Amino acid sequence: MSGVIAKYHCNYCQEDITGVRVKCAECPDFDLCLQCFSCGAEMGAHKNRHGYQLIDCGNFPIFGAPCNWKAKEELVLLEAIEQYGFGNWEDVSQCLPSRSCEEVQEHYNNHYIVGNIGRATWSTEVSTQIKDHTVPDGGPLSPSLSSPVAPVDITPSEQQELGYMPCRDDYEREYDNEAESLISQLSVGGPEEDELETALKLAQVDMYSRRLRERMRRKGLVRDYRLLEQFCHAGRPKASPVGARSKRNLREADRELQEKMRIFCQFQSAAEHEQLLENLEREKS
C-alpha cells in the first residue's frame, strides 16, 4: 500500500516522522521531527528562527467518538478496498495489521455504508422502469420465459446416467458439443482490421448461430415428445405408457403407419403429430 500515506523524514536526523512534524515555512521541502526542532537544529539555509507549521501526519480521527480510527488508517482502508474489492475483508485486513478482519468489515459498513457517507452516496430509490428485452422464440439464446420447463419423470440415477440436469433442462454434453470452438478464439478487431477479416469473423458467428439453433431444435423435440421418459421407461420392468396414445393394443397396420409418419415429427409439435395420426386412422377406417 505504498503511496497511500506520504512518508516524511526529518531532514536533520534522517529518521521517519510518525507523529507531528514541523514544516519550515521558508525553506522548500524541509521537515523536522519534534526532538530536532526543540533542540534548535539548523542545517544549510534553514535557520531556527524561520517560521514553521505543525502538521499531524494522519494521526487524527476523522469520525467522532467512539471511533478510534486514524485518518491514515482510513486512507489505507479505502485504498485496499479499491484494490481487492468490497467483501474481501481477509485481504483488506492484511493491509491494516493492527485491525482484525471483523473490525475492518464492521467499521466500513457502519461509516461508509450505513453512516452519513453511505446515506449521501447510495440512493434508496429503486428503479421500477424495468423493460423485458426477451422475445418469445427470438433466437437460440433468448427462449420464452412464459413456458416453464415441464417436470421429467425419471429417477436421479437415470438423470446421472444420461448427464441430464432437469432444473436447467440441460445436458452435460450437448449435441454438437464442439460448436463453441468456432468462436472461442475470436477477438474484436482494432482499427487496422480490414473488411475481409471482419467478414470472416461474421461468417464464423453465423455458422455458430446455425449450429446453436439446430442444438436447440433437437432439445425442443426431446422435450416436446418426452423422449427421455420413453427411453428410461423402456428399460424398466414395468414400463408405463407416455402420452395420450398407448402402444399396447396397436394393430400392426397402425404401427407401420406410425413408423412411416415418424419423419414428420421434426416439423410438428407432439400434439400436432398426435392429431395427424388420429386423423389418418380415422380416414382409413
From TrEMBL:
InterPro entries: ADA2-like_ZZ (IPR041983), Homeodomain-like_sf (IPR009057), SANT/Myb (IPR001005), SANT_dom (IPR017884), TADA2A_B-like_dom (IPR055141), Znf_ZZ (IPR000433), Znf_ZZ_sf (IPR043145). GO terms for cellular component: nucleus; SAGA-type complex. Coiled coil: none annotated. Signal peptide: none annotated. Residues 5-60 form the ZZ-type domain. It is found in: Nucleus. Its main location: nucleus. The keyword Nucleotidyltransferase does not apply. Keywords: Metal-binding, Nucleus, Transcription, Transcription regulation, Transferase, Zinc, Zinc-finger. Residues 64-116 form the SANT domain. The keyword rRNA processing does not apply. GO terms for molecular function: chromatin binding; transcription coactivator activity; transferase activity; zinc ion binding. Residues 68-112 form the Myb-like domain. GO terms for biological process: chromatin remodeling; regulation of transcription by RNA polymerase II. Pfam families: Myb_DNA-binding, TADA2A-like_3rd, ZZ_ADA2. This is Putative histone acetyltransferase complex saga/ada subunit ada2. The lineage of its organism: Eukaryota, Metazoa, Ecdysozoa, Arthropoda, Chelicerata.
